[in-house]
Amino acid sequence: MLLGAAACGGNQASTGGQETGKVTIGLVTKTETNPFFVALREAAQTAAKKKGVELIALSGKFDGDNEGQVNAVESLIARHVRGIMITPSNTTGILGAIAEARRQGILVIALDTATAPENAAAATYATDNFKAGRLQGAYVRAVLGRRAPKLFMLDGTEGSTVSQQRHDGFLSGFGIKDDSPAIRGRAITNGDRNRGQTAMENLLQRTSDVNSVYTINEPVADGAYTALAARGLDGRVTVGSIDGGCEGVRDVRSGKYAATVMQFP
Length: 265
Hints:
Blueprint: H1 2-8, E1 24-29, H2 35-51, E2 54-59, H3 66-78, E3 83-86, H4 95-103, E4 107-111, E5 123-125, H5 129-144, E6 151-155, H6 161-174, E7 183-188, H7 193-206, E8 212-215, H8 218-230, E9 238-243, H9 246-254, E10 259-262
Parallel strand pairs: 1-2, 1-3, 3-4, 4-5, 6-7, 6-8, 8-9, 9-10
Helix pairs in contact: 3-4, 5-6, 7-8
């Protein structure tokens, strides 16, 4: 992918690695704590080492931290990297920084999340987040069987393309619309475990009459489980998630939540 392209891109205008004779590229993820992005970073580091490429890994402070990602890209530009791989938190807010990088001859590739428009990056490698949400929704609804759905939705980041696609996909698979009375509550979590737990606690204070939960990712699902377990509702509420990380698979096996949709890198 970018590792090979950067290493072979002798016509690039950027001077990344000229001082040491080593090609340097950057990786900018949404966070450095989500297991999905930890695995992505580790895989990139392994590939970089095999190719003899120097990798600079940066990230936002939290899912949705566009300013942090802009600063990261600007830092990589200043360090004259040959290429940048980025999982954009804000698909439009990052465009200026990407455009500046490309103006300086830096190859920019979007990972996991496409920019808007998609051609703002030279290439995109991403999964279908709408489909992932739809699969989660269909599974959770099937588990409910004939029971009337009473749903909480723990969304990701306001304005995030991925969050919206997963949200919309879940509703499609679950078979309801955004204005359905089956939705008993919803909250923004920024994809964070602690926020997921707090959001679930707050929703349960309003009503504990719930039998299903949509979660944007596995850290949020884990936080939701903690809140449900504290109220004695674990095992009685069907929780679905997305990512398919090793920890998430173990959580499904242990019964913390019902299913996770595999998108792990």
